[in-house]
Structure formats: C-alpha cells, structure tokens
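If you are new to this repository, start here. Below is one unmodified record pulled from the training split, so you can see the exact layout before writing a loader.
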Amino acid sequence: MPFPLTYPTLCCVLEFLDPARRIHINSRNAALQRIDASIPHRMDRIVIGEFCVYLNEIKIFNTRNNVIVFEKLETNEKIEKVVSLDQNAEIMRKLYNYYFGGRKNSILADNAFFTQQSTDIFFPPNLSLTINKLSIHWCDFRKILPYINPISFPLKSFGILNDKPVFLDHPVVQSAETVKIKLVSNSRTTKLPDVHLLRNKNISVDYFDCKIRDIIRMIRHWMTYGKEIGTKFILTYRGLSNHIVSGLLIEFEKFLCNSEGVDKQMFLHKPRFAIKLNSWSKIFVYEIDVKRNYGYAESQLALTKLRFHVFGSRKQIWRREVPLWNTEKYLNYYLGEGRSKIFVNKLSIRLSRITPPAGVQLTINELDNIWSNFRIILPNINPDSFPLKMFTAYFSDSINFDHPIVHSSKYLVLSMNGTLAGTLLLSLGRLPNKAVLFNPNSWEHYEIVNIIKYWIENRKTIGTKYLFLYGAYKYILDILNKVSEEFSEIKTNLQEVDERGISKLSGVTIPINSQSKIYVYGVKKPNHLVVEVVSATESELVFNTSGSQVCRREVPLGSAEKYLNYYLGGGRSKVSVNKFSIGSSRITPPAGVQLTINELDNRRSDFRKNLPIINPDSFPLKIFAAEFTDAIDFDHPIVHSSKNLVLSMNFYEFTDQALLSLARQFPTKDIQFDCNLWQHDLILNFIKTWIENRKTIGAKSSFLFSSYRCLPSTFNKLLQEFNNLQEVNERSISSFTIPINSQSKIHVYGVEELKRLVVEVVSATDSVYLLSVFNYFIQLSF
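And here is the target side for that same chain:
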C-alpha cells in the first residue's frame, strides 16, 4: 500500500499540475477545494480578455449569447454551458472571481497576455500575477499594472500592440530586457517620437507605415550620445522599402561596408552600413529578412542587408543577381571593353558607389536619381543629353535644386515620404521647372496653400504646372474645398455641368496679377491635383497632356453634340490637345473650332472628314493610328508625313500581300503593328521583303504581342529560320542581325517591357551597342 501524500507534497503537486487537470480534480473533491485558494497556480501562459480566459491550453470564452464554451486547444474538444445572466460583463466578472478570486497566493505565469477591454472590467481585488513576460493588445497597460506582483519587475519581455501613442518613458517599458512594439495605424506623424531614447538592449518595433525620419533620428542620436555595446534594434515595416533604403543611402552612404559575421541571417550579397561611434564601438545597419505576411511585403531592418543586384528593367528578358563587389566586373563586361558610346532612354543609378567604366559616354533622355547622388555619374553622361527630358529624384535636404541639370530638365519628378519641412517647401517654390510631378504618400492642404501663396507673392511664370499624386480622388476634392475656403475672397470657381444640368465645383481660379492667374483642379485616372499658372486672358480649353480629363462620363449618342458645343464651343476658337481620337465619324466638333494636336487616333473613323478642324500647324503628326484595312488611304500626305505609324490589326482580316505592300511603301517610317495573334511566318516574309528590296537604313517596324510569353517563341523561330545568315550578338540572348548587303543589315530584337518584336535596318558598320534595345538601365535593387 503506497504511503499517503503529506500536505506539503500535495500542495507541491497541485501547484505544478496543469491547470486543466487541476480544475478537473478540484471540481470533484470538496477537501481540495478548501485548500485550493492557498496554493499558487503555475502555468506557461495566461490570457485575460474582455470575453475570454486562457489557462495554458484551456480556453474559456463567452459567446455573447449567454453560452460559456470550454475548449481544449490541443484536441479541439468543446463543452458548452448556458448561463442565465443577461450582461456579458457580469458573466466575465463571475469567471474572473471563480478562477482568480479569493486567492492568498499569486498566479505564477511565464507569459501574461491582456487583450482589448472596451468596458471597465473589475478584476478581483486580490488578483496578483507573478510573471516574466507581459503582452498588451489594444488596451492601456497602466491599468493592468496594479494586478502585477512588483517582484516581476524588471520584465524579461514587454510587448504592446496598439494604434495609440506608447508611453516610452514609463519605468516598466524602460526597465524591460526586451521591448516589442507594434503600431498598426497608417499615420503621417510618428507614434514613437522618443523611440531613440529607449535604454533597452533589445528593441523590436513593427510599423504599418515606417517613417524614415524616425530611423535617421535614432541613428543620429546614437552617433551623438553613444549606445551600450550589445544593443539591438529591429524595425519591421510593410510595403516597398524603397523610401527607407533611399533615405539611408542619402544620409549614410559613406558608411557602406562589406563586413561579415555580424548576424547569422546576414546575406553576403546585400549591402550594410558600419557607422563608427568611437574607437571601440560602431553601429551596424542591415536588412534581415524579406517575406510575405497577409498580402503585405514585410521587411526587417536591424541596427547593431540591404539587397543588391544588377538587372535590366523589371520586365526585361533576363535577370541576374550578383554580389555587390562583383557589380563593377559585370559593368565592365557589358559596358566596357573599348565601347565608348551607349544610347539609353532611361538611366537609373541606384548606388553612387557603382559607376560605368571610365571612358564610357551615356547618351540619355531620362535620369532616375532616387537613391543616389547624380553628380557622381555626370562625367559619364554625354553633354548632348542635356537638357534632359525627365529628371527623377528623392525630395530631401541632400538634393541640390540649384544645379543646372535639375533646373534645365523639361520634366521633374520628385518622390518623397512624409511632411515637407519649411526649407524644402521654399526650395520647392523656387524651382524654375515648368512641369513638376510629385509622388508622395499624401499632401496636406496647407502645403498646397503655401505653394500657391509663394507663387502669388513671387509672380510665378506662366506655363508652370505642378501635379500632386493622390491615392484616391476623394482626397483631391477635400483639398479643393479647403483651397477654395483659403482663397475665398479672391478666387472664382471653375464649373462643370453634369448630365442633369447641376453645377458642381471642379476647381478654382486664383488671380496673381493682371497678366496671370492660377488654375487649381483635380484629374482622375491617375488621381492627381493640378496647380498651374496660365495667362489672365486664357480662353482656350487645354486638355491634360496625359490623356486624363478633369471629368469623365458616358452620355447618349444623341446628346454628344450638345456636350461638344458646351465644352468646345461658346465662341472658343482654339483647342490644344495632345491626342485626338474620333470614335464615330457622325460626331464632329463645332464649326470654327481649330484643334492643335500631336497625335491622331483614327481607328473608328475616316480621318479625312476631320481634317478641316485640325490646325495645319499640327502637321507633321507625331503619331498617326489607324485600323489596317483597305479603306485607309496610305498614300495620303498626312499618313506619309507622320513620324510614327500605329496600325491595329485585331478586328479586320488582312492578307500577307497587303502587309508586304506596306513594307515596301514606307521607306524610313517607324511602324508599329498591333495584333493579338502573330504568326512567325508573317513576320518572316516581312523581313525577307526588306532583304529583297534592300530596305533603307533607318526603317523600323515593331510587332506588338498580346503577351510577353508569345514573344520568345516567335523570336526563337525567326532565329532558327535565319540560322545561316544571322550574326548572333554574344552579349545578348535576345537579338541578332541579318546582313542585307555591304552597307546595311537588319537588327531583330525583343522588348519585353512593351511585349514587342522590333525589326530595324542599321548600318553594316554600326558597332554601337544599343542599350535602348531593351530600354535598358542599371539598377541596384533593395
């Protein structure tokens, strides 16, 4: 017969017994129930919420319809009990008192977790938790502290999830060994203004929308005041990390390093920063991980890699990832080896440490400078490239807005994150560029108002136009209303009339002086706010050059002329529009109106009927688009003189002979054929016609595909067909040349970005490596 348990032994057994077993045993023994309150509860985890209690693997929760459910998480076993209480708060009060009330000793738990308390729940007054870790979700942790045994402090870990400011100066937060903070709201202002003052050695902050200024402020504080060796700060943020990386590169580019062994998770092909504090310590900054979490891209940045690879544009045919220190080797291979001239439409430099080989001259149209210092690359840019068509940069203190390259660019694109500082706002107002696009997270109305006030005070030049991108059109309407209120004494409304004849606000006009005024209006698709300076006598209706109008609506065909008269008539004689598309030949603009255009889309109409209303100054056109049918007059001077010809071939039958006839008809025209289903035989015959007729140098045709998947197969079939004639470019897997004669050859290549196959006649002696084949650019991606 076994010896009976002594009282101390029984107490020890009950204390370390799993809560589920202890509740089960005590409920069946009256003697144990009398001593249960004097024996501590010991468990790994306890969760106390507004409608639930977790004791290790036992979950007890109120379903809000007077049903209490007991669930064992391991086996999903459930027991339901109906209670007669009407108030949910009263039900939970009974639960708290039953499990936690009347105890003379505390509950010992490794991790205590408190969830949202939308109502004031009164815990038993003698509830005392002795814990190692504390997690708080959606409630004020200060209300929980009276129920925590003081001997629990300092905590091993303190975690909080909330959308409200966190009290970082509280002793509980400051003394914890590890602090984990998760902020879930998207805010323009930080909810951790003093995060850099935390003294904890292990800090983890999870941002929904990270602010680069928080990271920079923290690093600067560590650099100024020092930090204890061993301190580690991990920042988790969702979405694209481009603005984080660009900000770090701008601020700390000189601290880039190739150090290894700092962290086992560190990838060697990703860059990192080593910022020296003093002779015995330094700060390491590197990216730990990139993963997908609930549909968001999630990144972690540690302060105690940043990803690098060299590739063509994101939609190019090839892509390769290389270590940072090998990038110059690849650049020399593709750009060097005696090659002196490179033509590229867009050049993007993602890291100023990497530059093209010496002696290489890049002739470019656009320069993307978001993550780098563009002045370092200037020696490699052909002076003939200036002024640039487009200059893109990250809007910060480090960019020199007074540089001639910035001032002379036709279009200026500025990416930014966060609210503008006063000095940056003044720099923005002084920009002489007439076309500027801002791509921020959001703009406040007072920032737009300050820009307008600066323009009024300094009499901004006529023709200046700023575009501010927004995520939704409702924000633009809100800005318009606030701008209207701010300038209510001097502004007049731009009105538009809907189909019911009801007038509604679409923009405002603000006078500058007797010579000029400011238009402020919204544009949909993409959603952006336009602020531009026009002549005070402006009476023309100018359509947005991007093809997006101020308003868009569908109207019955019979009412179309009414709307045309409203928008284009009324005594208006001049209308300037980038692209003119006629969808029905029955509808024509009002008599007397002259359209000045760049492009004519004639896919659904006979363009000859509309020639009387087109200003002769529009010719030659930049683009003429039409359906490829017998009805189109390809001998017309308008067609012949157009710089580019776009032919749609999706809705009509066409013969090989018609296509080949067209190939002979235009000697040097740049023709784009748009067809969903191309057969390689048709393109093959097209090329053979060029060879037979010794096509003139400069001739160029593009075959547009419906999917990039169809392009490689067609390209490979052409490569096989001309296997005996072609000269394969060893540096590119996606182009080859076919000799015509001693003076010329045909260059065939694919452009995946636009899903098109290009056939072009070039000089036989042409040795220039055309990066524009792929609209190629160098990019270091993070």
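Two things worth knowing about this chain: The two ends are 72 Å apart (CA to CA). The chain has a mean pLDDT of 73.
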